[in-house]
From TrEMBL, chains A, B:
This is LacI family DNA-binding transcriptional regulator. PANTHER family: HTH-TYPE TRANSCRIPTIONAL REGULATOR GALS, LACI-RELATED TRANSCRIPTIONAL REPRESSOR. GO terms for molecular function: DNA binding. The keyword Transcription applies. It comes from Nonomuraea spiralis. Residues 5-58 form the HTH lacI-type domain. InterPro entries: HTH_LacI, LacI/GalR-like_sensor, Lambda_DNA-bd_dom_sf, Peripla_BP_I. Keywords: DNA-binding, Transcription, Transcription regulation. The keyword Transcription regulation applies. SMART domains: HTH_LACI (SM00354).
Amino acid sequence: MEKRATIKDVAEAAGVGVATVSRVLSGGSASASTRERVLAVAAQLDYRPSALGRNLRQRRTGGLGLLVPDLTDTFYGQLSEGVLACARSSGEPVVMGSTGGDPEQEAELIGMLLEQSVDRVIAVPSGDAETWAPAVRAGMTVVFADRLPPEAVREEEHDRDPAEHALDDLLLLDGLAARPRVPESAARPLDVPAVLADDRAGIRTAVRYLRGLGHRRIAFLGGPGHDRRAAAFREAVGAPVDEELVVFGTGSRDSAYAAASGLFQSRPDLSAVVAGGNVLGEAAVLAARELDLRVPKDVSLVMYDDVPWAELCAPPLTVIAQPGRDMGYRACELVLREGTRRARSVVLPTELIIRGSCGPRR
Amino acid sequence: MEKRATIKDVAEAAGVGVATVSRVLSGGSASASTRERVLAVAAQLDYRPSALGRNLRQRRTGGLGLLVPDLTDTFYGQLSEGVLACARSSGEPVVMGSTGGDPEQEAELIGMLLEQSVDRVIAVPSGDAETWAPAVRAGMTVVFADRLPPEAVREEEHDRDPAEHALDDLLLLDGLAARPRVPESAARPLDVPAVLADDRAGIRTAVRYLRGLGHRRIAFLGGPGHDRRAAAFREAVGAPVDEELVVFGTGSRDSAYAAASGLFQSRPDLSAVVAGGNVLGEAAVLAARELDLRVPKDVSLVMYDDVPWAELCAPPLTVIAQPGRDMGYRACELVLREGTRRARSVVLPTELIIRGSCGPRR
DNA sequence: TTGAAAGCGCTAACAG
DNA sequence: CTGTTAGCGCTTTCAA
């Protein structure tokens, strides 16, 4: 970087002290004439206060971190757009990292953020509580989006008012580190606010819809981080759950395809599948095609995530839409507001968008 | 952020001077015993050198900036993944911004990067040379990816190798706007290296393919930044170009749809369209369907960008694939290497992937 | 091989 | 209202 004008240069050129310049530029008190002169000189010199100096002085970066598993997944693209939009409107730089769904890379990136003194981060976590402990311990404000680390799951939910499942969810997640009897020694659950979609309601609605169409053998095809959705699925189909119908890929498109294909082949009796995310939905469509299964004639499909191409698919995909962009935006708001008041988790509603990929059981 | 251990803490605890700690940690010389002790203490204190202090001292952030128009566009997602991957392997943090294709937002983000002392940036530019002038003037190392700002013209390139059409392309593109006689006063052309796909060859191949299928009225559906592709298209179809068949959207999905729909309606005689990017391809498919045009029976379609869903489309889309991830990776390499030696632009090959969206002229 | 000391650009006391 | 000063955490001469 070439040499830029510093506050000292401005001060000299304006014939004032550096403190005055600092004050003027950050809206402190100053006489009109001084302010004017300083401003003029600053503009003339094209002076831009260095965030480096300021941050060092204030011992914080002021920026945000954003960690997602894969920017190639449209949903995370939407979510990131939300975060970026919110951050920009607050003038906060955001340091971004893609973890590839790998806890180790995630840990590495967390370390990098720590080094940068980035003290607020929004993440779609891939690692578990242990991965995130260093961040929390270091005093980072973290907000999870889209999902929670596996260990951050709190204990069982006793069932209740069917109309209030979102609230239920809130209770569930936030709920606390400290429910009665968690051994001290166990990995301390993280107490981190999160912005999530109402997976439970979303899945339930989808399963009911498929049930209404006559489907009885419904499968769930998930990826990393889809445990809550899988749990919701199990709950929605009710006991006894045929565990063979709940399968997981490991995150890559290939593994998603393998999982889908394996599922279709090992259980030709299934008549419907719920894909836990758009990459899995993609895989399901591909695998079905490859095996000459017609959608929805031979198999019905509903996919989590509404992405533009869902509509272009043949047939257009019925989806559980979650507001990716909003989720990102909200998460960013939470992380920015934190400090003011302890942030509460947020659960956003999903919507079942019925297109053409589900039909009556054959 | 809670208080972290500083270099001073480590120095004290190890009973050495701060300079020694600094040396040890950055691989300088030190006696084995000292080194060991310092390392032990550092580990024990969980010491992490603060990038803030280091950067201030060295007057640079060491990080990279990455500016793209829209993370929701899968191609930019791919490109970003490439950049992030390369940056991570070099331990560089990347500050990301989404411009929405808006030059003003882009300028704002550039200002933000300047403030952060981020002195190296990779961008898919939305603004023109004027937008980027401040960055260059400030001494930033910038590398463009995927496209060039409209005004970004460059110096002549001599020397070529007949086998290297890529070079040819560089000439072509870079060439135009201002050959020899550019008045000094005119907006100084940017001299910025770039990583581009071989649009010219890509488009030419596609057009030839369509020609071979019997198509004569071929349209080009572009978006912002697709001027080079449009130019290549004009060149490929040859004079006289029917300018009504070259239409542009403004970047949003809606406007892309409007452009596509308008095109189909105003020129029912066209039999094929080349979409300049995946968002435009998406729009074309949608618009065609809405107008009851069958692909490829009524209209053939080839889309720039290979994205996972192209294969899921009905019919699967024939595409001009460009290596988005590689482009990002290469761009990052360029920006990192710069300083060592002046970086040269890179043109990566495209590939026509024939699937099912093109058929003989009806 | 090591330590002391001088800042990098900025803000926040504290005086004047 | 304004200037002086003391660092923030680190790297880097420069001596010892």
